[in-house]
Amino acid sequence: MAATTATNRIRVVLAEDQAMVLGALAALLELERDIEVVARAATGRQALTAVAKFTPDVLVTDIEMPEMTGLEVATALKTSHPGVRTVILTTFARPGYLRRAMDAGARGYLLKDRPSAELADAVRRVHSGLRVVDPGLATEAWNAEDDPLTDRERQILQRAGDGRTSGEIASELRLSEGTVRNYLSEAIAKLGASNRVDAARIARSKGWL
């Protein structure tokens, strides 16, 4: 078999907000002769910038990231860099997250508690055009409740759940405070919650946030 050269190695951008985890993942992947980590990112926006700069074959990203979630990054890449395949690597073994990841265009969904060798294998399989999803989680996803939230309701509820005020959310998303409150009221009603904090808790527990 011919040796793998730098020109045909799978080029990967890693996105993870925990520095130690990011370093460990990079070290693991760089042990593989056919994989090259071309950039690391600690936020969602950094991940987008790295993809634009290095045009990797695969992006491996966590879901919960500062500035933009991994799912928001995957959605953005569908338009800006459709050739880059996304693998979600997360602790969230929830069908709702998996369904949202697939809707966002992700080609892989792996859990962090799986053996480390599975990550490199997933990168190879996704790069070759396959989809890689934990079989048990995929089965659960088919039977999971449908997510009732709209994208805008999810954006606002996520920020409210993080403790931001209606005014802060309105300023960040360039909406009026009244509009933000209306979206929150809709989300609270859909989820049968008592308030915005309870609504965020329910949505997160189902993988909708």
From TrEMBL:
GO terms for molecular function: DNA binding. Residues 11-127 form the Response regulatory domain. Residues 142-207 form the HTH luxR-type domain. The keyword Transmembrane helix does not apply. InterPro entries: CheY-like_superfamily (IPR011006), Sig_transdc_resp-reg_C-effctor (IPR016032), Sig_transdc_resp-reg_receiver (IPR001789), Tscrpt_reg_LuxR_C (IPR000792), WalR-like (IPR039420). GO terms for biological process: phosphorelay signal transduction system; regulation of DNA-templated transcription. Transmembrane segments: none annotated. The modification 4-aspartylphosphate is found at residue 62. The keyword DNA-binding applies. Keywords: DNA-binding, Phosphoprotein. Gene3D superfamilies: 3.40.50.2300. SUPFAM superfamilies: C-terminal effector domain of the bipartite response regulators, CheY-like. This is Two component transcriptional regulator, LuxR family. It comes from Granulicella rosea.
